[in-house]
Amino acid sequence: MVFAIIGGLLIAVGLYAFWEPYWIQATEHTVEIAGLPEPLNGLTILHLSDIHGRVGVFSWRRFQDWLKDADIVAITGDLYSPSLSRARLARHLETLHAPLGVFYISGNHDYRRGRLAVEPWDPGAQLLDNRVVPVERDGATLWMAGLPDFVKGRPDWPAVSRQLASLDGPAILLAHRPDAWMLPGVERVGLVLAGHTHGGQVTIPGIGAPLRHNRVPGGYVAGRLEVAGKPVLITSRGLGTSELPIRFGARPEVIRIRLVRKPADSGRE
What we know:
Largest sheet: 6 strands, mixed
Shape: globular
Distance between the termini: 62 Å
Number of domains: 1
Order of helices and strands: HEEHEHEEEEEHEEEEE
CATH class: Alpha Beta
Number of strands: 13
Mean pLDDT: 94
Low-confidence stretches: none
Strand content: 15-25%
Strand order of the largest sheet: 7-8-9-10-12-11
Number of helices: 4
Radius of gyration: 19 Å
Helix content: 10-25%
């Protein structure tokens, strides 16, 4: 009897783990940004990451509504999966539009033989790897910076950080790995958006994720992290899976972020 119950539970857990990758979560954050110009107050960013070929989110009504309202779309790497159609995802990526821009930075799975290979999609000017670009509304500017994957790509943070240091106004950094939050001088930006971890993809109740896929201290694996003197870090659990097509306790997610102006006296005691 006991073995039958245990066996039944294991089967149920296994079935759930194969089902959870399709149970997308919609997550919202409001982030205060120091010096955010009034015309950019309330700006919204739709954050996608680690799609790994899954296109279900594009037909989800919540995603479609959020996309209509988004000022910026940010994609933080890992587009495809070897087992899913690249052409199908590319067609969906081509439909993404936002008034202030769609920006993409590369992840480790976006490389083949040492080079970026995301065809048949052509990100063109949307590729933000090692770049800093302005987004403007009503004469106000927000700087968008990006870094390619730290392992497969060729990130040039010294060049990006020097450029950011020479510019006035608030800035956001897109990076595939949350480890970018620990870079020297990253305090120049107000927000870091990342992916890569899949939230561990599989977590153990009461223990957490055995594999964190990052080196941010404190057992961090995904979500929002705020530490005094550092930018806000938001790491998406992503939309797809890698290695095994399962998730457990780490639902796929799409994130909407609303930027608001940080009160001038918020840091005073």
